[in-house]
Amino acid sequence: MDRHLVLARHGQSDWNRKNLFTGWRDPDLTELGVEEAQLAGRRLKALGVSFDVAFTSALSRAQRTCRLILEEIGQPGLDTIADEALNERDYGDLAGLNKDDARAKWGEEQVHLWRRSYDVAPPGGESLKDTVARVLPYYMRNIQPRVMRGERVLVAAHGNSLRALIMVLDGLNTQTIAGLELATGVPMVYRLNADTTVASKEILDR
């Protein structure tokens, strides 16, 4: 059995370009973001990767990335399941703010703590720990069983929701996962062993 799991962060969004905290807000992809998603699809197609099912978040930037990838590999009508459990981390009161403006308001150290600590949440928002607590149960119930049955699964989501999955798949601790950066539109191709551990991982970097 293949047991293939592909994780892809959405392409660049309009708020990524403007350096704004996004979270559960719903800006669309930029032209570059569209190109990144299409390139991700072409790279997967070049590897001969196809899918049995796709999962994405309730946010349009991830859903559009998912559609663009599937169009590029010739599977535009593939069964796709969207769920807010895979949404980006909720940045609460920071959402919509320019990151430099946030640093000016609360200080470099405090904003860094909100962004990069594992368990400190911004006002009204989620910590990475909170994000892990909603993403992992969804993965265990809905995604992992399908991978283990031999289905080839695409997950198009967000930097922090994917970091939650990578933390478990790659066996990272709370310090190393907090510092992990995921590029927009770059797929990560996992192949899992029969015991759910990782047999191989390939990053299809630009």
Automatic annotation (TrEMBL):
Chain segments annotated as coiled-coil in the UniProt record: none
UniProt: substrate binding residues: 9-16, 22-23, 61, 88-91, 99, 115-116, 159-160
Marked site: Transition state stabilizer: 158
Record carries keyword RNA-binding: no
Gene Ontology BP, a term: glycolytic process
Domain of life where this protein originates: Bacteria
EC number: 5.4.2.11
Active site per UniProt: 10, 88
Keyword vocabulary terms for this entry: Gluconeogenesis, Glycolysis, Isomerase
CDD domains with a match to the protein in the record: HP_PGM_like
Molecular-function GO terms, alphabetical: phosphoglycerate mutase activity
Catalytic activity field: (2R)-2-phosphoglycerate = (2R)-3-phosphoglycerate
Pathway info: Carbohydrate degradation; glycolysis; pyruvate from D-glyceraldehyde 3-phosphate: step 3/5
Family membership noted in the UniProt record: Belongs to the phosphoglycerate mutase family. BPG-dependent PGAM subfamily.
Function description: Catalyzes the interconversion of 2-phosphoglycerate and 3-phosphoglycerate.
NCBIfam families recorded: pgm_1, PRK01295.1
Subunit structure: Homodimer.
PANTHER family xref list: PHOSPHOGLYCERATE MUTASE
Protein name: 2,3-bisphosphoglycerate-dependent phosphoglycerate mutase
Organism for this UniProt entry: Salinarimonas soli
